[in-house]
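From the pipeline queue, job 12 of 40. The input is one protein chain; the requested action is below.

Action: predict structure.
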Amino acid sequence: MNDEELIYKEESYAIIGGCFNVYRDKGCGFFEPVYQECMEIEFEHLKLPAVPKPTLELSYRGRVLQRKYEPDFICHGKIIPELKAVSELTDEHRAQVLNYPNAAGFQRGLLGNCGQYPGLQYERIVNTRRPRAQRSKTEQ
């Protein structure tokens, strides 16, 4: 097994399972906010701890930036799933999902794409950068 498989395996599996449930019900073709709202309901149904649209502070050279990051969710207090509704995932999407965990000091990001037919596309993203000591405002 590689390191990616070992990081929060059960939690990641539950989150991805929720994404599959939403995709099975809604299919592809909706905008991201529809899937976001469905996932919020699905996480409640699964009793999966999730904070929707948390605000993450960013800093540069020790100064907090005015611009904030808002990932779709923080789940289990340590995983950032990001939902897309695009025909194909790109490296820009992967970079975005890698930046969220890096900004929050987390190791795991998940990328789910509900815009691809005939099924959900998903990827597990591992942050291998040195963790930062930042937290979301909702967790402080």
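Job complete. Residues 82 and 111 are 5 Å apart (CA to CA).
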